Amino acid sequence: MAGISDVTDGENNVDSAQERKKVTELKKERVINGHGDTMDSDQAPSSPVMNGLSDESTSSSSSGDESPVKEKEEKTDKDAEDDAKKEEKEEQEMVLIQDTGFNVKIVVPGMSESIELPVSSMELVQEIHQVLMDREDTCHRTCFSIQLDGTTLDNFAELKSIESLKEGSIIKVVEEPYTVREARIHVRHIRDLLKSIDPADAYNGVDCNSMSFLNVVTSGDILDKKRTKPESIDCTPPDFIMPNSKEGPCYLYILISRNLSGWNPPPGNRKMHGDLLYLYVLTLEEKKYHITASTRGFYVNQSTEDEFNPRSAQQKYLSHSLIDLLSQISPAFKKNFNVLLKKRANKHPFERMTTPYQVYSWMAPMPEHSVDYIRAEDAFSTRLGYEEHIPGQTRDWNEEIQTTRELPRKTLPERLIRERAIFKVHSDFVGAATRGATAVIDGNVMAINPGEEAKMQMFIWNNIFFSLGFDVRDHYKDFGGDAAAYTAPGNDLQGVRAYFSVDNEGLYTLGTVVVDYRGYRVTAQSIIPGILEREQEQSVVYGSIDFGKTVVTSDKYKELLKKTSSQLKIRPHNVLNEKSDAVELYSSLECKGIVGNDQRHYILDLLRTFPPDPNYLKFEDEELSKTMTEMGFPRQFRHKLACLRQELIETFVETRYVAFVRHAAYQFQQLQLQRQNKKADDQTESKNEETKDMKSIEPKPLTNGHSETCDSEDKDEDIETDEAKKIVEALTAGDGQTFEENSKDIVKKAAQAVGSLSDTEFSITFNPDVFQSHVKHAEPEGETFKKEKKLVKDAAEFLVLHQIPSLVNDCMDHTSSPIDGLTLTEAMHNKGINMRYLGKVADVMSKYSSVSYVYDIVVAELITRAAKRLFKIYMQGVDMMSLSSAVSHFLNCFLGSFPSPHAQITAEESKKTRRKNNRKNKAVLVSIDNTEWVNDTPKTIWKKVVDEVQDYFQYTLDCDSIDSALERYNLQRVSLLRQFCLKVGIQILLKEYNLDAKNKQVFYEDDIINVFPIVKNVHPKATDAYHFFTSGQTKIQQGLLREGYELISEALNLLNNVYGPMHAEIAACLRLLARLNYIMGEYGEAMSYQQRAVLMSERVLGIDHPNTITEYAHLALYCFANSQVSIALRLMYRTRYLALYLALLCHGDNHPEVALIDSNIGLILHAAEEYDLSLRFLENALQINSKFHGAKSLKVAMNYHLVARTHSCRGDFRAALQSEKEAFTIYKHMLGEEHDRTKESSECLKHLTQQAVVFQKKMNEIYKGEKSITFPPLQIQTPSIGSVLETLNVVNGIVFVQISPEDIERFKKQMALKSVEKDNELEPKELEDKLSIKEVKEELPNGTMTNGSLETNNSEMALPLD
């Protein structure tokens, strides 16, 4: 949608019920094709509106943006596929909507020339309104209408519905009279314009603003730069990315002050004259003006601070725009505002857009706090933003969340509208819940039960219910008290995510957000209609509210939960109530079903959706296997809510199913062989193979830290898994009459071998109520219940004996390479490993030197997680007045080497404050002595940290202070500081800290700028986009680049529709498109896509997020390919700076990723002929690779070759010869003498030997004193960018397939053709049938082209699954 920007301002909100209803009706009729409404739905509660794409984001999709969309209403027929397809062809209704583009001319008052604007027939008039408000020359206008031939156009009309609108039509902008609302909106918009280049909001984490430094690093937009020659390169790292840089952001001052006047509101007699509100302005010339906003516009009145005189000033300036008026009365304002507009226009649109969720920075400069009445008004208003102008004022979050889920989803356009609405409402809800939770902890919200103890209080704010993570009324007394109460919200959120992803029609979950702030855990939930008007006992129609004494059920809930239980692997089971009546449940006992006043069926309290973890539950009558017992399981844990993760359940079931399939298929094949030739050998072999297969599915004990499972043996099986599955389907699909008893026996044996709960089919589901002492089971001694318990034990054993060694394996073969605590956590969760097993992971990692860097990361994570738990309790006892002192004191004790840091507040002062608070009856959320923190020292804090690691993770740290921890585990203070701040929500002052100081403390109270909330929430997914993305990856893996590129482009298009222009998954999509363009030789396109990926990653993930580092490295490669060598170097320096100084790596450069970064830097410096500098980086990369990949690996050989080449360019042939010999030895050993690499190395050796001999002869002649010695020119080849680029591709794991120019041209033509005509577009489901698309559950690796297939490293991930 060319020319339409998604940068929306708050003034363009739908503000009346009638307009919202109109938008809803329009949405039902519209078919989304690459773009949608550009209105912000933030203030349209009852009808969330799809945000459109900006011109930047839509142009990123190279296909489908302007193509027609076909809706297909499908009929399903389960009898026969062929008949169904014929029937569909005959009866399907084809709806074709032409989406044509054309240009219109916009005439704006006060502008001599008209604006030519490209538009689409699918757009709304509102979108033209949006464009004008974002353009540099019209951005100061807000109150206007758009007219065509004297007729005012309806803002919500589609352009195609306006008959007289055509190519070249002239549209006039007509200034409209102001109302109070429009005047306030105009003033707010001007305020937003004036602060649009100020980074303060990004640093402070306000209004979904976040930081981006890419264009600072590259000194402008890289797409605007011309190709630079290598000769003009400055190879030194820029000052602004050095740690000791004193260069800060420059500020542009436009006005000294702007405020609402104290004369507001206008008195009645002035309202009769059109006065709406009064403003007070102090200009840079230090002149004071009182301004009236009237229905006709803005003018200066004669009022002063002491006298009210609303008459206009002698010089009559009446301007429809406040900007025009200020420009007339202040020349300095006019000059600086023009500069501001140019700077604003130079910013990439991705730098100006808001993110869906707030991103916080752990470091920030000292904020400049200027006067801003709008900020003050928002802060002290219980309403949000513009909601005071909306009828009803507060949003009914529950109604919005549930209504969006009820939207139709049969066709692709319907699904896009539905998913966009769901995502928009959820992101808004997360923002509102976060603000509410912080207000609750800060004491700004009145409790609904103020008479009770503070930690038992509950709150309602903005139609959201808030509760604290404490054990209220001993609810969790038998489960671990406050420890269980703190864990329960997290478990409940996991359950909500699971049911949310199943998306079962008719079953509803609450909007749920968990917020950690200032040591407290707050759960925010949407409110079920009517729940507050009745007792809980009357509301619950399914489940139990008293831990099993009373258990109720409902046929409707059983019907709904039966559908979800199969997908979530939950086994239906019977429990007994206090009357010993059996009640059938399809969930855990604690899960409650409530029918709201809106007649919707809600489920809540999903904390035990998944089975318990018997490794952390001790029962006298239950024992684990001998292997697990020897490892120290079961372990004592501080609560009884430890559950297995959903990822583990799915992996375990999949592994068992593969074993079942192969076992049954093998037996069936043997049965067929027995029929054909009844030989004794076959029978013996069958028996042996059966025994072997039976054993293969059982977890083996650890061998060198790894387990051997059926996976390793499966590779040697004769029967392919797909064929085996077909055989098993045939076996289990029969009705028993057409199959012999032998076939039934085969299935029965296979089922028994894998622990199936059914003898006639594969059935592995989990009873979530096993190992729960408060649950009375119907048949506790029955065989079925024993099988259920064994299955849960097996899954927990599978985690320890298979998944943890599998994680270690992945790290050893570098398929997974965590670089900080966040990536380690993701890797563990993807394997289904809970973080309480971190100590066990550390035990296993410590045995292998090749993964020592991962071990160090694990230890750092253990330390910071233990410190986080201590800090939580530490903060709960701190008075607000002492907050910054307490935080700085904890940081000094935790990270500083100074033995006696000063707490900056005495215990007596703190006690006085406490007594004052008690006298004022202020709520103190905990009753512990809040002066205890003053007496903490580094020694006491570190003793608590070591004890916490031992108690919670069952791991013994061999240290008693920060210094011994750094020395023993190769850690960095700055790494621990960063991880700790991000975990607990601390923002510190951006400055140089001497963290190693031993004679004074490091942190002071002024160094603590802010505390921010840590938010956990559900992440709605774009299902169609996900299928396209994973299908595209599959095609690329198969070497089908054209099909893959098309599918990924479509995925990007759909992602933009669902998420808007900014989202982490869009960044992943852009990254893959950049890589594909690079592989196809489109270096410019690759750089363009990757630039957007970097900007988006910085904005939505953070400037020092691991993914952002990867994005920077990729962009550097593509810039180098575009001959922007200097910029490529800056980007690589930035990458290394982030990796080392922002401490993503726990231990400096002791990590394989640093080797890759240094190899890239060394090669780029080599291309710039900076050989000495290049050599330092390449030798460091060689040293690191030798350590982690082994001295004889091919990576090391490549490093030796690069070092040799650099030595030869320096003229040091002896050193070059030595390095190349090492490379040749490795190539010969690993690849053989006939391999191309070995031959190349051999040729290089010959050349270097010749050069060394010539050089040595001449040197000998000089030593002998012979005169008139002339050196023949040495054959030193200066590197070309092309040759260096080839080497960079090899180093980064990109090997090009041979694609002929004809193929590339044909591909380009097809892509161009597709953007023009796309008459045969299919629905995603039909595409899946046509392309045999299968959902890829695991993230595809990324990066290497081999034999026509693209594989990637872990940095190129599939769209993440929850």
TrEMBL record:
Signal peptide limits: none
Lineage: superkingdom: Eukaryota
Keywords from the named record: Cytoplasm, RNA-binding
Compositionally biased intervals (Polar residues): 1343-1356
Biased composition (Acidic residues): 710-719
GO cellular component: cytoplasm
InterPro entries, A to Z: CLU-central, CLU_dom, CLU_N, CLU_prot, GSKIP_dom, GSKIP_dom_sf, TPR-like_helical_dom_sf
Keyword RNA-binding: yes
One Pfam family named in its UniProt record: TPR_12
Gene Ontology biological process terms from the UniProt entry: intracellular distribution of mitochondria; mitochondrion organization
GO MF entries: mRNA binding
Domain Clu as annotated: residue spans: 375-617
Listed Basic and acidic residues bias regions: 17-32, 67-89, 678-698, 1318-1340
Biased composition (Low complexity): 54-66
Family from the record: Belongs to the CLU family.
Its biological purpose: mRNA-binding protein involved in proper cytoplasmic distribution of mitochondria.
Name the record gives this protein: Clustered mitochondria protein homolog
